[in-house]
Amino acid sequence: KLVSREFHGEDLNVEVGDVSIGNGKFAVMAGPCAVEDRSMIEESAAFLSEMGVRIIRGGAYKPRTSPYSFQGLGRKGLELLREAADRYGMKTVTEVTGEATLEAVSSLSDIVQIGARNAQNFQLIQRVASCGKPVLLKRGFMNTVEELLLSAEYIAYGGNMSIILCERGIRTFETSTRNTLDISAIPLIKMQSPLPIIADPSHASGRRDLIIPLSRAILAVGADGIEVEVHPRPESALSDSKQSLNFREFERLMQELKSLVDTR
Ligand code: PEP
Ligand code: MN
C-alpha cells in the first residue's frame, strides 16, 4: 500500500507553504470550533499568531448532530478565516462536509479537513484527493486504525501524498469524556505508516480541563502535533463551548509545549 512503511520507509512530511508538518516538529493547529463572525476570528488570529501558531483552524461548514444547532457561516466563514489568517501570515485548515462545497473550501483554505463523520465517505475522499491541497484526515469515531489507513490510501491512490492523519477519539462505553482518546493509535500508526499523525484532544475529550494533560500524552507518544479548539470567550461559543480553551489556558499550553519541543 502507498501509505505503508513497506512502500515508503522514511517519514513523510507535509509542506504547507513555509510550514511543515512532521520533520521532527510539533505542529499546533488552533482556533475556534467555528468561525462565528469577523471580529472573533480576527481576535483569535491576532492572539494565536502572537503565540507562535502557524496554522489556524475554524469551521465554516459544521457537521452538527442537531439541525437546530449553529451550522456555520458557510462561504462567508471561509472568507473570514482566509482574511484573518492572511493578515497574520498564517495557514488555514477547515472542514469540507460535501462535494458541493469542495471547490470553495479548496480554493480558500490551505489544508482541507475531512471530519470524523466523513472518514469513510469514499466518494468525497476521492474528490478531496484531487483538489490540489494537503488533506487533514480525521479518524472516524467508529473506525479501526486499519480503516483509517485505508481511507488515507484512497487519497494516496488518488495521487495526493500530502496527508496528515488525526486521532480524535473513538466511541467507547465510557461516558465521562465525549470520546476516548486512543493513545495507542499514535505509535501504532507511526510503525505502520510514514504519514504524519496529529491528535485532537478537544474532540477526543469534550472537556477543557483534560486538554493540557492529553496534549502531554500526545507529545510523549510521538505525535507530530495537535489540533486544538481555542475561543476568545468559550462560555459564549456557538459550538463546543465546554471543550474550548480560553486565551489564558492556551497560553499555558503553548508555554509548556515550547519548553519541550519545536512548535514552529
Ligand atoms: C472539527 O474538528 O471541527 C470536528 C468536527 O472534528 P471531528 O470531525 O473530529 O468531530
Ligand atoms: Mn468542534
Automatic annotation (TrEMBL):
One of its GO terms (biological process) is aromatic amino acid family biosynthetic process. Keywords: Transferase. Its EC number is 2.5.1.54. One of its GO terms (molecular function) is aldehyde-lyase activity. Residues 18-261 form the DAHP synthetase I/KDSA domain. The keyword Transferase applies. This is Phospho-2-dehydro-3-deoxyheptonate aldolase.
